[in-house]
Amino acid sequence: MTDPLLSELLDLALEAARRAGALLRDGRPADLGVAATKSSPIDVVTEMDIRAEKLITGYLSEHRPTDGFLGEEGASAEGSSGIRWVIDPLDGTVNYLYGLPTWSVSIAAERDGERVVGVVEAPMRRETFHAVLGGGAYGNGDALKCRPTAPLNQALVATGFNYVTEVRTRQAAVARQLIPRLRDIRRGGSAAIELCDVAAGRLDGYYERGLHPWDVAAGDLIAREAGALTGGRPGRPADGDLTVAATPGVFEPLQALLEELGAWHD
């Protein structure tokens, strides 16, 4: 890496994610409680979620006090350096509550609005994924490459479901129509990890409606740097309506099928 700024940002993101992952893994109380609710009573914000975000923002602010922040649990600051950190301190909150291993810490850095660094730490899987714009994607230090192209009917595709019942019901209807046209569907519960699994060649594709910038900022960069294509509805970038990531041969037919099925609306 020839850009010293990107090298600095990557090192900081890796260390902040490692510390937050250790806090979440080792500090998870047996009587884990709920500090607040998000969009519905099922979608919870845990005490550990909030602690992890404070740890990350505190560490990054200590080293780069003029940077901005956008965090799931309320961290928001404009900054003056041109760098903004986009943070999901605990992606896969419900998995974490239930003691399932598929949860992660996601940290991305943007420079003048462009994502340049992404780190996803998955402590229970003992995996750390990272990417720098133009520098490739890595998992535990090994270079990542998405799977070779497969026909859509042989593609293994992951998705996720909203915690609002009405939205989730519509998403289930879309998935029901998709299943006969794919190899199969998976649902892991962490958007960041699903995107990294596309990068690592464990999935042919992934899509989800209703994601926020902190859900995908790091994972999107990691997937793209591993050779995957990412976007939203046809001709649009990934956004709250739809996020799609897939190998080059699967991306366009999957995106077109999702558009046909109305995966971006109720």
UniProtKB/TrEMBL annotation:
User: Which EC number applies?
Assistant: 3.1.3.25
Which Gene Ontology MF annotations are present? hydrolase activity
Q: Please give the family membership noted in the entry.
A: Belongs to the inositol monophosphatase superfamily.
Reaction catalysed by this enzyme: a myo-inositol phosphate + H2O = myo-inositol + phosphate
Taxonomically, which superkingdom? Bacteria
Name of one Pfam family that matches: Inositol_P
Protein name, please? Inositol-1-monophosphatase
Q: Which keywords does this chain's UniProt record carry?
A: Hydrolase, Magnesium, Metal-binding
Q: What is the source species? A: Streptomyces mutomycini
Q: Which PANTHER family match?
A: INOSITOL MONOPHOSPHATASE, INOSITOL-1-MONOPHOSPHATASE-RELATED
Disulfide bond is among the record's keywords: no
Q: Which cofactor does it need?
A: Mg(2+)
